From TrEMBL, chain A:
Taxonomy, superkingdom: Bacteria
Aldehyde oxidase/xanthine dehydrogenase a/b hammerhead domain: residues covered: 20-115
Alphabetically ordered keywords of this record: Molybdenum, Oxidoreductase
PANTHER family cross-referenced by the UniProt entry: ALDEHYDE OXIDASE 1-RELATED, XANTHINE DEHYDROGENASE
UniProt name for this protein: Xanthine dehydrogenase family protein molybdopterin-binding subunit
Keyword presence, Repeat: no
Automatic annotation (TrEMBL), chain B:
InterPro entries with a match to the protein in the record: CO_DH_flav_C, CO_DH_flav_C_dom_sf, Diverse_Substr_Oxidored, FAD-bd_PCMH, FAD-bd_PCMH-like_sf, FAD-bd_PCMH_sub1, FAD-bd_PCMH_sub2, Mopterin_DH_FAD-bd
Protein name per UniProt: FAD binding domain-containing protein
Keyword set, alphabetical order: Oxidoreductase
Residues covered by the FAD-binding PCMH-type domain: 1-219
PROSITE patterns from the UniProt entry: FAD_PCMH
Superkingdom as given in the UniProt entry: Bacteria
Keyword Lipid metabolism: no
Organism: Streptomyces lunalinharesii
Amino acid sequence: MSGAATGAPMSRVDGRLKVTGGADYAADHNLSGLLHAVLVTSTVSRATVTGIGTDRARSLPGVVDVLTDFGGVTLPYPVGEISFFGQPVAVVLAETLQQAQHAASLVTVRATARPAVTSMTDPKAAPVPDAQTPDYTRGDADAALQAGPVVVDNTFTIARENHNPMELPSTVAHWSGGTLTLWDKTQWVQGNARNIAAALNVPVSAVRVICPFVGGAFGSAGRTWPHQILAAHAARRVQRPVKLVLTRKQMYTGVGYRPASWQRLTMAAGEDGRITGIVHETRTETARYEAYSDDTTELPKMLYTSANVRSAYRLVPLDVSAATFMRGPGTVTGAFALETTVDEVADQLDIDPVEFRLRNAADHNQVTGVPFTDRRFAECLRAGAQAFGWSRRRPPRMRREGDLLIGMGMAGAAHHNNRTSASAVARINADGTAAVASATGDMGPGTYTSMSQIAADTLGLPVSRVRFHLGDSRLPTAPMHSGSKTLASVGSAVFTACSMVRDGVVRMAVVDPASPLHGADPAKVAVHNGVLSAPGHGSERYADVLRRHGRDGVDSTQNWTPADESRFSSYAFGAVFAEVSVDVALGLVRVRRMRAVYDVGRVVNPKLARSQAFSGMVAGIGMALLENTTRDRRDGRIVNANMADYLVPVHADVPDLDVDFLPGSDPAATPIGVKGLGELVIVGVPAAIGNAVHNATGVRVRDLPITLDKLL
Amino acid sequence: MYPFTFTKARTERAALAAGARGGRYVAGGTTLVDLMRETVERPTEVVDITALPYRDIAASPSGLRIGALARMAELAAHPTVITRFPVISQALNLSASPQLRNMATIGGNLMQRPRCLYFRDVTARCNRRAPGTGCAAIGGENRGHAVLGTSTRCVATHPSDLAVALVALDAVVLLRSPSGDRSVPVSRFIRLPGSTPDVEHDLRPGELIVGIEVPAGAHTARSGYLKVRDRQSYEFALVSAAVALDIRSGVVRDARVAVGGVATVPWRLPEVERALVGKAPGTRLWAEGSARAADGAKPLSGNAFKVELLTRTVERQLTAIGGVA
């Protein structure tokens, strides 16, 4: 793939639509006869429902129905039992949203409460093994820790976090002749269609899910949640279209969260500055009704060379709603423990943290033993240190400006280059334009734009003549839009489909006596700006070929499937550097600047990639300093379920950010040379900030968020 | 949201009549509408008073007269307020967000209800919202709650930054009802929770706030507001301090210190003020004075840090306003 589009810092092709309000989000669909649904949710964490009072709600004008019987649908928890605070127990349907909201506030729920366990620190909370994350051992880590000589052994906690995208979870459900159409906020139109079909016990062919735009998700719209099932159920029951939008408060228990975590990480190293052993234990909370694995063990097992590693991951089932993946799931959590510990070990050995990482960086996957497709971790560390001015770093608590202590910190980062089988259809139209489609999504990274760029260069067309379509479950198969795999997976499918359709038209030309390219070697035919040409031959346009053949278009649907990782392991790498100030008396931590260097293979669109990296830094600032879903341990209630009390960074919290991407391409990872980026860019951020706080103050805070009370 | 009627009062008389029959006044709507959505507030009649002529901000040598309907943003940007009452301008600019400051009024600012997480959740116990049900914050999540002025019934902090500045400057609330006008110091207008936390203001049924008067003095120009919070903007205070000092000829002649984020009402610190007046300004004096800031503080399970943070915040702001000389 070569051409003018890939590598160009193009603005979003859908940008104008978004800023002018022309982009239709799920809740923007208003069908004739549409009813508004509002959920009534439980106010206890564990109970048996004995009755639901709906008379007052039903008597209100505009109220069409109050559904309390969820018969005929499968929910992830037993209906009639309360499994978590905030569980939907009734659906109010009314002609207007206001009528439905008011009626919902009048529904009463009688329940026999039972003792609930809602916090990992509750003595009754018992860790259990996680089937998905078996214990891991190589060498004899415990013996290595015994041998020392330098051993750092600490525990880390990270508060629960909610994704808090701008767009609230929204579903419009419409049944027509036994077929359900959902305009739904989702990261996976096809998986959602399958899940909804299964939950409602209808064939998957009867469900179509449409989602052309997502107003942020960060993982929260990856799976199918109860509200989506209940919207479809309600629409079927009343035989009218139904719109259901969760409130911000309901979002906190309705679409998952990054589970609270506890980790213990012990690391031993020799005087030569080489890591000799790592023991890593983790516990994360999960719903009692559903195990969610937020595997934290990956980076501690593979990022640094160590012959001896043991890790154990445990789940702590609680009477809480289900957790789910949130940007950099597990990886950022494990990286916080790992990269903080690495910093501490380097400190004890009096070795510069960058040098210590360079010395220990793994040259092959430490778990599988196979080499990396491309591994430029060291280059990221060196380039980042240079660009950031790392050499100006002073020992802890040695730099002060007035009331502010200034510190620098850094962390390494890596993320598996997830790739999954994906399909796309590419079509060249008789007018010389192209349409390319796949059932993927665009929750913000710019899928529309990057796919258009890949398609344009593969087809030999300007981007302005390519339209990319996504977000409809009837389009060719795509994986969930998550895990940083969309560009690598769907992009490879788009490349494959576009290559095939381009080659198809080329073949039509070279075998056609009427073509100026007749007899040309197809491999030598180039296409630029929609014009086919070959050395020693004339040229003609796609449109000419198609018109001569009486075709209104030529298309090709192709699947791309990644190679397994038996010979190569594919990871994206990075290094993150942060400078913070900490008020010496008031404990206030402010990030002053941050700079990262990433190795993500080919960068299809530097502008979008830069935005992604910045958003990862902003999210990492939130994780490091602010975000904390606070629960009342007495009843499991989330007490800060709103945007005023759950703190995400505002502009004032976001300083001077910069990012560099190492030039290059990783063709062994994907045919288009890309490695995923979306998760990687948060992975190192919290640890880099925490390490900078230590450098500023001499104080290690191993519990996130780092709030001022921990530094007074 | 519960159903309600909405009318716009064209005259003061119409507004007072509506108030007398139980109508709730609304101006910027930035607090009341939020709380109505959460069903914390359930007024049956809402009366828009934004057409009333209370929007002027008048500065004279004796002080400021602020119309109750002046917007936060207008007062913050007023040239005389910026130069002669900087503590007011700063307190406002550190409040909320620009969008909210463009809507919210000064009268409404004093009427803000607490940010207590349980007060705003109608499924939780709260003596302020539902008298007699108990206080869920005591023994619950109370990192943001008060350490001063608390009672066994309520520990919610007062949310206003402006009110802290106004209390420091001895501002007075001007009230009007059909039976006449009266004025009440802001420090008495906002009431301690005691045994009746649901009674938040000295405001009679149907009474309107028409304005606020702030007396000028030698101290008002040398004043400022410090707000300490986890997030750099758009957050209520963990601790805040309003300080105004009159320092002449090497002596502190007058000192006004009030704090927010730590008390159930805007909290004046007379002991700190007394420790300062008549003494030579400087680092030592600010440390001595601020040592009294947390006198009587009673921390809860989750906010012990506020006691130390309060002392340090007051010391920092005394230093900022008084100088290090």
